[in-house]
Records
---
Amino acid sequence: MKRSLGGLWDTWGITAILLLLLAVAPVLTPDFFSLDNAQSVLRESAYLGIVAAGMTFAIASGAFDLSVGGQLALCSVVSLMGFAAGGTVLAVAAALATGLACGLVNASLITRLAVPPFVATLGTLFVFRGVAYILTKDGPKTLPYDQIGSPFVKIGGLNVAGLPVPFLIMLAVYAAAWLLMRRTATGRRVLAYGSSPEAARFCGISPTRLRVFVFALVGVSVGIAALTYITRVWTADGSAQDGFELKVIAAVVLGGTSLKGGKGTLIGTFSAVLLVSVLNDMLVSEGVPSAYQRIVLGGVLIIALTIDGLRTRFAAPGSLRRAVTGLGGRTPKTGLAR
């Protein structure tokens, strides 16, 4: 069976790099595999990973959502306001409802007003953060310290069988997302539309319904992520997680989802999220200044985009054989030495 280099990368590439990084990590950070640090990495990866799962659908459909950083800030602020007003149940409902509302706002701009997704979500990124700033004009919203034992706080702080609850929530989200993408007609429509919007419309797939579904899904994923984020940091305002959208997009593309649409891999996204989280933990442990951390993040994003281009170039079946043949110094057609 002919294999492509792009296919091999999608299946094993990021996982192999993650394993290599995990092998090197103890050398650079001796206490990396301590229980506390391992739990910290898994807990930190949750909110990034949950949003990346939703973003995988968006990018696979041929679009992306630049507003997720603003959504996370707004959902976190509104969730804390809900907790202050009515406790855990209202806080959870507020986060999910706010995320869904943000997603529907984006979908409406794109489908009703025909604003390109890039422009629409870039604009709402600032709008959502601006609303969060207005809601916190008297100071950041915070959780009172006397609520440390409340069920809401336990979302971010509790461990079950040694695993942080946020990480378990992330695992559940990925399991549901994988089933949705690979085992339902809706998931197949997302991939089909990303491959060829014209052909998808010819087959009866509604672009409006698909866009509404995808951006609503991203919004709900942000709402879930906000619950794992805010119960860990206990405070939020309009500046929460500045630049978060770049981390999400970098993880999704690095994991094997093509920016051109039509292909999404949740397993790759999951591995890429862990890779980004491990890398971030190593930088923080080594005391690397935040400015240099941003440079590293920018480098990861550039690498992700480069890999996406190379993956497209080597996606054709038989590219692995041709590459090996080329390295051996023989031409594919004649077999003669160069």
Note: The two ends are 27 Å apart (CA to CA).
---
Amino acid sequence: MKEEILSVGIDIGTSTTQLVFSSILIENTASDFSVPRIEIKEKKIIYESKIYFTPLINYETIDAARVRAIIENEYEKAGLSPGQISTGAVIITGETARKENASSVLESLAGLAGEFVVATAGPDLEAIIAGKGAGTERLSRDEGCVAANLDIGGGTTNVAVFKDGEVIDTACLDIGGRLLRLSKNTQVVEYIAPKIKKLAEGARISIRENQSVTVGTAEAVCAEMTKTLEEVLGLAPKSKALEMMLTGRDLRRSYAIDYITFSGGVADHIYNPGDGEIFKFDDIGILLGKAIRKSSIPQRIKMKKPYETIRATVVGAGAHTVEISGSTITYTKKCFPLKNIPILKASHEDGPEITERLAESISQKLELYDLQSGGQQVALALKGVKNPAFSQLVTIAESIIRGMGKHLGTQEYLIIVVENDMAKALGQTLYSKLRGEKHVVCIDGISVENGDYIDIGKPLGDGRVVPVVIKTLIFNF
């Protein structure tokens, strides 16, 4: 059994807006007499839009109508409709995510992105998606190494570090090519981001809006921005400037980086530093790329060119956001898609005291959510047991119900996400124990953590699996 699903990636960045459509092939790889095992077998891009400058009304407001017009036009060019799209992501990235109407822009695009498309702007997830789209995740897996990708756009630099194909660290800095904008004809500064002003002042660089700037001064600003990138990678001592430029937590720097890749709009000027017009795009993106190329970064860490540069995020959003659940799942009601469900992960459960420990763990974790007022839907995550005996299934089901306690009544569904292959039997046992009074969604083959959010799409493969997107917003180590 093979099934093709279509995915869309829409990236609305500080500098550019673009879209890709991808085809994702899923297939049952088990024999006719075995339990189905449905896997993603192939991902390929079937259409890429042109790259547009992100339309803004002013520095604080996205032009939602023009963004929607761009997306509608590209759907038409691709010969596709929103109803044909099964999965994907709409990502508002970088500085654009902080614009006053960013959330309303996402809402305006909801009807253009199918029923099960993630809309998010979390910098950690953005970094991971860009790293996957660039091919850095694959590089770390193929080489058995640690590889870092710096996705440098117009407003932010998103850093993702991969080891053997797994994400181990992320960070985001306010460093980008359009944080200082000027007229290429007059070289008069039209906009300086607040943090860039402070960075320049700290380095005693004189630069002001509505005043002309020399190439040398712009280069000096780019050099200061590059220093913070050297610091975040552990190539120079950490300074207060780095603390200021970080948008959240710092990298841990407890590992050695074997390879580095660059993606985003600035990346092309790192790998291909041409001698053309320096302020061609009315910003400092070209100079920033040159400054990074001259820095200690490519001298001290092996630099590789990724599969994608400026398209890394949109390719990642279109082809790398979705996972497929295990093939033994339970759902007692077709309630899909389920979106933005927070994960509540119980402590590891095994051994003879599983009943008491699991129930207590669930009860304690429930206190993290105010389920009494508003009844927020959550998904309970468990590691589960490999090849469980029937008595173990009953014990786990009873522990879940007892741990949920009075909170069970506030939940529209009992949603269980299990890592090990046991969801069908566990879901059926739960439904039986609840006497059919509460609908159950129980899926397996998915690993999540507290702090994650999960989206579950409409069943695929004759109802045997569901597409899943895990939105990891924060990494804790």
Note: The chain has a mean pLDDT of 86.
---
Amino acid sequence: MGAGSRLSPLSRSFCSGRPCRSVAPAVATKVLPFEAIPRSGNNAWLNLYQFWRTNSFQNFHHVMQRNFQNLGPIYRETVGTYDTVNVFLPRDAAQLFQSEGIFPRRMGINAWAAHHRLVLNKEVISPMGTRKFLPFLNTVAEDFVDFMHRQVRKNTRRSLTVDLYHDLFRFTLEASSYALYGARLGLLEENPNPESQKFIHAVETMLQTTLPLLFVPPGVMRWVNHKLWQDHMDAWDAIFSHADKCIQNIYQEFCLGQPRKYSGIMAELLLQEEMPLDSIKANIIEFTAGGVDTTAIREEIKAVEKQGFGELSKVLNSLPLLKGAIKETLSWPLVTVRLASQTLCQVGLYSLGRSPEVFSNPERYDPTRWLGKEDNNFKALSFGFGSRQCIGRRLAESEMMLFLMHVVRNFKIDTVSKADINTIYRFILMPEKPPLLTFRPID
């Protein structure tokens, strides 16, 4: 990108030092060239060395926050092969998204991908497609509640204090796998089978080994840290092997002439025959790879429960506070990656969620902020926007809402410690040390 490119109007908000307010678009000001965007460091490989030396990969979100404070609301950064323009203000994010049109350019994806996106939309984004897989997610959420009840019954105090991170990870993979492949992994059983254990370990390894590969070319990484590279490749091999097995099972059922029923997103895509097999498998595998006071939320759920739980999609639409809680939680991740023209652009959601320019009392956890008349446009961008939104958005949102709905209906949850939770970046933002939570059944 150069002078006069799509990002140029955003340069009106450049300032030195602390972040400042952008000039309103209606005000005639000189458009600065791309090169005028403040930059964090001039040498890409020296920046990469500093990241390695200071272990800044895990604190990437904090590094971005510091850079926004020092350089302003838009800045450039190059770390190894990772070359970006970073923004965090909603109005600048809006201009980025709106400048791309309905078919944004994606690095490394061929032109025919637009057609595949439309085919995928029918099964995973559209309301009709979402309604098909909601029962699958609901079943797993109910099974997770049963799993927690079994754990509680083992304790004579009728309560369970636990670090829920690994159980949540198992629930997520179990629910996603069921909706995507139409097959249960059995991760919520007392003793999951070896194949399921291998799959969950592969996904964990893939996520843990991805971050360094964002910054270092593959050829260099194979030489610098061959074990990390090999672990990453082995993990993907295991994930693809799982997908191949699921495809074979679907085809076997189809060839046996068994009665046609909904068997998950992959089965629908395979039987439609509108996408090549490799594209279906790649997209499905990409899906595989994504203390608060609950009193008010519980009352909201009770009100819906009194009316009777009918169609799941309508039930979820009747829980605005629960939706607000999810938005409030998801307004705090690290970044959402966006591509505009030939330049990689990032919206710093971690910084956006903590800016007093964007939210009043940004450090306070307040789901009700999403229920009022305040302008919240381009503030909830965890899944992107428009044609660039995450294809798995409905799957993830439904999974979270059904999980929370069933857990909050069945348990009172307390935190053991009131201390703030430190976060680290390992391709996804996660707690440095998962908090201990105490679950008590609601009679």
Note: Confidence is low (pLDDT under 50) at residues 1-28, 107-116.
---
Amino acid sequence: MDDRLMYRREFFIGGAWTPPAGGDRLGVISPSTEEVVGEVPVATPADIDRAVDAARAAFDDGPWPRLAPGERAAILARAAAVLRKREAEIAQVTVDEMGCAISQAPRAQTGMVAATFDYYADLIRTFEFEREVVAGDRTGLVTSEPVGVVGAIVPWNAPVTLSSWKAAPALAAGCTVVVKPPPEAPLSNFILAEALAEAGVPAGVVSMVPGDRAAGEHLVTHPGVDKIAFTGSTAAGRRIMSLCGDQVKRVSLELGGKSAAVVLDDADVAGVMPTLVGGAMHLSGQVCGAHTRVLLPRARYAEAVEAAAAAAAAIPVGDPHDPATLVGPLVAERQRDRVEGYIALAVAAGARVAAGGGRPDHLPKGWYVAPTILADVDNSMRVAREEIFGPVLCLIPHDGEDDAVRIANDSPYGLSGGVWTGDPARGLRVARRVRTGSIAINGSYPPFPAVPFGGFKMSGLGRELGPEGLRSFLETKSIGLPAALRSPAARS
């Protein structure tokens, strides 16, 4: 990789590349080689303060919130065009910084980045930011105004994708944004900052300051920040929500998941298992919306376990730079330890390892866990109730449609899910009964970014993407209009 992309010396603050306030630097370690492949400065509270101050000035006094929606749309569309040209760079950086298999990068790391900017550019050209309401002899003007300065905190599994899910609608709304990339994967988001600057986003409207948890808390509690948009663990989300509550600060949270794929008795059970196994292993299982519980008809359970084990054993695991690899390493040694701990807990609780369960023999270096299938799992086990964030799939038997829905809903989470059946109409009926933010029928996923994504219960608060994603960065104001200010249509 180009050293310019992997070794960053400055932050992007106030529209310029700015030296850090402190001297600490963070080595970025490749999960596949365990070697340092890059370096970034570590944000101090002073760096966060500078970024927020720049965003505050750009919002309070700058042109961005005051541009016509069409003018903002033109800049967002230019950003999309620049980002498309840089997709290969984004993909390569994420391979090195967090271990994403290059074969998975178009789906996980780049495929929705430019598309999200294009979507919001198109949306705000026709979005109703104002409407007039007439009630008898009174008239009101209802306006949607940008919420203000947004602090966007993103995780390491899809850093640029998830930054775009926040930055694109926030910018479309007229907000200014301070993005805090994660310490595990801080490099790829600098390409996003470069693209936005090249597209013509005014100075101060976007800042990029990677940092640790302390930097994130300083951003969350900063009085100059009006809203926090966060993607990450439920534990971190609880903390952020509590901190925002002290200031009654706006917050949206996209958190963890333990999503269920409900396989009904009329489905081709053996036929769907390779698809379900492949989906659960995407990005080495480090996906919040992964369908990590598969609920199977008890009469077909043995057949399903055999098919799942065969599918897992056939998945190529190895160097994430190799296009033939489908499962690369986990992001960090601590993450591998966490996954191995959950597998041990499952076995101790009575589950059976049908495939995988350990480190691949042919990969002595790197933080790998083989694609793992756990059979004989009961939904009360920790492995079925807690988010593992690794290549582990739990197979749980059910005793019919009602029982499957009960098990699917017996979870503290509700982010994603699926239904597999030979009768699509039956699939829709079951999908309506599952308490989750998005759900696929026979692998037909909703058309993101045009529809919202987010969770029920402990999977989060609010929605990203779709028109709902734009509205989450808007405040609503009602203005009483004197008769003289009514529009001609309201007077008639």
Note: The chain has two domains: 3-255+459-478, 259-441.
